[in-house]
Amino acid sequence: MSGGAARAEAAGGTVLRTEGLVKAFGDHVVLDGIDVAVGRHEVVVLIGASGSGKSTLLRAINLLEPIDDGRIWLDDEDISDPRVDADRVRARIGVVFQQFNLFPHLSVLDNVTLAARRVHRTSKAEAEASGLRLLERVGLADRARSYPDRLSGGQQQRVAIVRAIATNPELLLLDEITSALDPQLVGEVLDLVAELKEQGSTILMTTHEMHFAEHAADRVVFLKDGRIAEAGPPEQVLRDPQHPDTRAFLSRLRAR
């Protein structure tokens, strides 16, 4: 068992584990033997330059990108088995991407409740009651009947996160969820993620917000050219990185 998997097990059981994950686009290897584990109620943050493989890793875990080698487990199920029902697996995972991807023709409440009603067969009344409670928690209950184009970017991203957690997913994947936001809106979205952490959500996320990673992550994983160059607690990886590539990456970020 790798160090990350051992820590995930100690955290209360492993929700996600990848072993030797490989993905190439033609001759370009994007993921080159990735071993990562996320324990129950743990927040693991992936960092690295654009093109390092972070987003591809999240897409592979959500079965949106077929892998060339390796295995992926969600709890105890091998979801990389080609016989697996991908839609059933995705119903267990909440995903939020850089772009909000809200359906523009649906109200905020309909966006939030769509998966519960269509995928999980929850009654409309129950789904809407739960959706309104979640929107109340993020201060958007009064916008439930509004359409996405009437919301700010930060509000739209909060709705996207509410939509992702509305079905109580076993795992939440967040891919650079603040990169499309104006700087003044970044804080409100990251505050919501911090709240989800406090409530026990299991999260694997990518971000360039190092201050957030330092305070919210249980572990930080640095990817370089599709490989894990360094991984460990945030105080070690972000404050005292051991790998020269990690030091160089963090120096470039801080120089911006």
- Give the oligomeric state: single chain
Largest sheet: 6 strands, mixed
Rg over C-alpha atoms, rounded to the nearest angstrom: 18 Å
| Percent of residues in β-strands | 15-25%
Shape: globular
Number of strands: 10
Question: For this structure, what is the CATH class of the domain at 1-85 and 205-256?
Answer: Alpha Beta
Protein name: Amino acid ABC transporter ATP-binding protein
Organism: Amnibacterium setariae
Subcellular location: Cell membrane
GO molecular function: ABC-type amino acid transporter activity; ATP binding; ATP hydrolysis activity
Could you characterize the architecture of this molecule?
Helix 4 (108-118) packs across helix 5 and helix 6 packs parallel to helix 7. The protein has a six-stranded mixed sheet with strand order 6-7-8-3-9-10, with helices on both faces. A four-stranded antiparallel sheet has the order 2-1-4-5, with helices on both faces. It has a domain at 1-85 and 205-256: P-loop containing nucleotide triphosphate hydrolases (Rossmann fold). The model has no long low-confidence stretch (mean pLDDT 92). Helix 7 links the parallel strand 7 and strand 8 (203-206). 38% of the residues lie in helices and 24% in strands. The protein has helices spanning 3-10, 54-61, 86-90, 108-118, 124-137, 153-165, 183-198, 210-216, 234-237, 244-255; strands spanning 14-25, 28-39, 43-47, 69-74, 77-78, 93-96, 171-175, 203-206, 219-224, 227-232. By secondary structure, it is of the alpha/beta class.
